[in-house]
Amino acid sequence: MKGEIVRDGLITEADTCRVLVTPRLMEAGWGSAPHAIGEQRSFTNGRIIVAGGKVRRGKLKRADYLLYYRRDYPLAVVEAKESNVPAEAGVQQAREYAEILGLKFAYATNGPRIIEIDYTAGTEREVDRYPTPDELFARLTAVQLLPPDAAAHLLEPFNLVSGKVPRYYQQIAIHRVIEAILRGQTRILATLATGTGKTCVAFQICWKLWSSRWNRAGEYRRPKILFLADRNILVDDPMAKMFAPFGDARHKIAGGDTSQGRDMYFGIYQALSTAGAEVFRQYRPDFFDLIIIDECHRGSSRDESAWRAVLDYFEPAVQFGMTATPLREESRDSYAYFGNPVYTYSLRQGIEDGFLAPYRVHRVITTVDAAGWRPSKNELDRYGRPVPDEEYQTKDFERVVALRSRTRAMARHLTDLLKGTDRFAKTLVFCVDQEHAAEMRQELLNLNSDLVRQYPDYVCRVTADEGAIGLTHLSNFQDVDKPTPVILTTSQLLTTGVDAEMVKNVVLARVVGSRSEFKQIVGRGTRLKVDYGKEYFNIIDFTGTATRHFADPDFDGEPARIEEVTVDEAGDPVGESETLHEAEVPVDDLPVEYGLTEEQFGPDAGLPINQPPPEPRKFYVDGGEVEVIGHLIYDLDSDGKKLQVVKYTEYSGRSVRTLYPTREALQTAWANPDTRAEVLRELTRRGISFEELAANSELPDADPLDLLCHLAWNAPLLTRRQRADSARRQARELFAQYGDTAREILTLLLDRYIERGILQFNVLSELLKVKPFDRYGNPTEIATRHFGGVRGMKDAVVRLQHALYQ
Fold first, then answer.
1. What CATH code is assigned to 2-144?
2. Gap between the terminal Cα atoms of the chain
3. pLDDT value of position 639
4. What pTM value is reported for the model?
């Protein structure tokens, strides 16, 4: 048998799988169903790595085999190694994959030998065969303590009408929740980071239970399920889209319509518990078998919450809460009510798996944030009030004293950043208060007047004061097919609930003292939209908030508790979100929203024009000059755990030194076209772009090798023309070997190098097809007529490149 898998003395892992592993799995009965053996199954997308503004995907996780009891119910992972490698070599990887995938069985094999890792028994041992599917499922259910009839509900297939197969972590969450329900647990919690598909999890749980006719009473009927939230958008969107396969079984409880003839109900607390009506009492307490509470941290589980009455009334139902909030002091009520989560999937894990967008942090420093600001002697503010003679720091700006010139400097820097990247990149600007958001909007509007002429809504303010107008701007901002608004300025209203996939820039123009709130704001940008060009997002930090939080060793990248939003009886937001986390900024220092009427605002900026606000909490200084004096860029390190300063040129030099210990080693590898290809691959893998290097170094005419040597070892720089002139002198002997036409072609190649660089030589056959080379014939004719054949021409070009890099 072994001889069959040896080719040229090489035994490959693929050969081992094909000849030794798959047949033994088939013998154990895994081939009896079409989906039982999943070969080479990738279960992550590979982390998106950003370096120097360039993006690449990290290595995705791929199992050699996943063994399925049913199409959507995996039981085990198998890690195979070449047959000439010990089976033990695959144990750690098999364990890692099993633990990530939530599986209780894993196997490491080299073909002849099989090592079984059984998490149900806590054992690791060599076995002589793979267990059959029924044997493995029986071992699993024996420790799950499930009732005898549980299998039908647990193994009910997913609904895949949409074409979207649940991701591995969604499958784990679905199965963990259903297992808990089948074991008789009545309060269940799952924690999944923003953007990881909680609605998909809820839908598949409902579908499996509904299709398999599970209900609390054990009767032969479909269950009655209520999907409950605190805002219309959180029930209307799932009902219309994700839950569409339920068809006419769906019903929304609204306007007193308490129809009881459906199976899948949707409702908001306000519609169920309107004062004086208590619509929920139109249903029997045991009417619902399952209640799903979306964003369950928002207060319904608190003992003193008015909405708690709804959950208490339907106490017999199984209640499943979903949240993006891990256990924190401020979310303790949710965890006390529902218990510990049956499954948690964090923001950090989502970024590591490549399902969520990573971030770059731009730390931007103004003169007043760096050195502080002090008023001049007897300085008066906008309303003629003397500004107290104190030294004001970042935390004081827009809280105690409002510097219009600082806001203008921020707006100018942001505008320049967008002009240098993408002026239609969706951007959220978080300001100190509504007034500050209005000032920022006006400054950005004036700085982008060329676009505002064509797109009047290019920049808008969305705060509590805008009401329906602001919600329209927000809706258009979220629509991927509408180009504007591009920039939204806000204070607190958009820290949560903004499901905008295209947010590419999150701007911090205010101090965010709470780590919880900071995580909420970061979550606004984490959704991926690769088909629209969004693979990462920028955090543009004018206050030091981001770098301070990311430097905190306790910051683990997990999502935080979302702030509670005040909503009206219709379930729509009516004000700024109420902060429920512990504030690290003293309460007395927080801004006050003045509640000014529209008549007190100017026509554009929304700023007071005649009188100061009643009992103003800050001074307004319109004069002076503020400039940006620093702009640092940070990327996540190779482990994705902490930020590293990315002055791009420094990062590139450091990367080169890790690849090549000496300048000579790099030059030798670069001079040879074959080994240069490997250099380029390694640099590309690290996100290094020669175009960006040249731009950052302000040396557009430098040779790439010289740029790398200069950045890594501070070597002197040569322009491409200097290298070409030197090569002509060094290659006289080479030129003398050929006739006039061949020398002309080599000279033209040097001219092309001066113009475009050495990378043109990597596609020599294509280069020779275009002007001015095409006048000598096609590439084959050039090689045959003037260089004695293709080998002769390649040899001449290689020697020319060696001359360039001597």
1. 3.90.1570.30
2. 54
3. 56
4. 0.69
